[in-house]
Amino acid sequence: MPLNLTQYQEQYFRESFKLSYHIPYLDICSQKISLRGLDILEIGGALPASLVIDHLCCNSWTAVEAPSYDEELGEANQFHRNLAEKQRLLEIGQRYRHYYCKAEDFGDEHLNQYDLIFSIACFEHINRLPLAIKRMLEYLKPGGKLFTRTF
After folding, report:
1. Could you report the per-residue pLDDT of 52-88, keeping only the tens digit for each?
2. Which of 35, 70, 81, 132 is the S-S candidate for 103 at Cβ 3.0 to 4.6 Å?
3. What is the pLDDT of residue 56?
């Protein structure tokens, strides 16, 4: 099973949060880089806190999505779908944060804050990709890594 999820857990994440390609790509990332204890910035999505904080034991997870993402997905967006996840977000506080902005416009207060940037199926949607990549590298701590995959 990917990510050492039980069959039940994998089914839960796939059905509850409409995850498909996300799980195998997250599994590839976790095989290359241990996510335990890391501060991670996700560009172009928002994996559920119950997966990344509780199951993978990341120290923190910050998700950045373009402002139009919520409008495009509507009810498919996890923050509108799952009451248990909403409650979990309240319990873990600042360890999981979610922002609606473009990657290249993410604030300077995030410079040198992250051990890893995780971004899947996103780069093709970024209009100012060279600037976004430059900024992403600035968000990383020294020695930080960028993990990305496309379809």
Report:
1. 999 999 999 999 988 776 566 555 455 556 778 888 8
2. 132
3. 95
Residue 83 has a pLDDT of 78
Token pair of 87 as six digits = 């409650």
Answer whether 91's CB lies under 8 Å from 71's CB: no
CA distance 52 to 48: 6
CA end-to-end distance (rounded Å), the chain:
21
Angle at 49 between CA 64 and CA 58, to 5 degrees: 90
Q: What is the pLDDT of residues 120-134, one digit of tens each?
A: 988 888 889 999 999
pLDDT interval class at 18 (50, 70, 90): confident
Owner of token pair 């899947």: 120
Looking at the chain, how many residues does it have?
151
Q: Where are the alpha helices (DSSP H) in 75-149?
A: 78-81, 83-92, 129-139
| CA dist., res. 19 & res. 118, Å (int) | 15
**Directed axis angle between helix 7-17 and helix 22-32, to 10°?**
130
| CB of 146 closer than 8 Å to CB of 117 | yes
Looking at the DSSP bridge assignments, the partners of residue 146 are 117
pTM of the model: 0.90
Tokens standing for 37?
């204890």
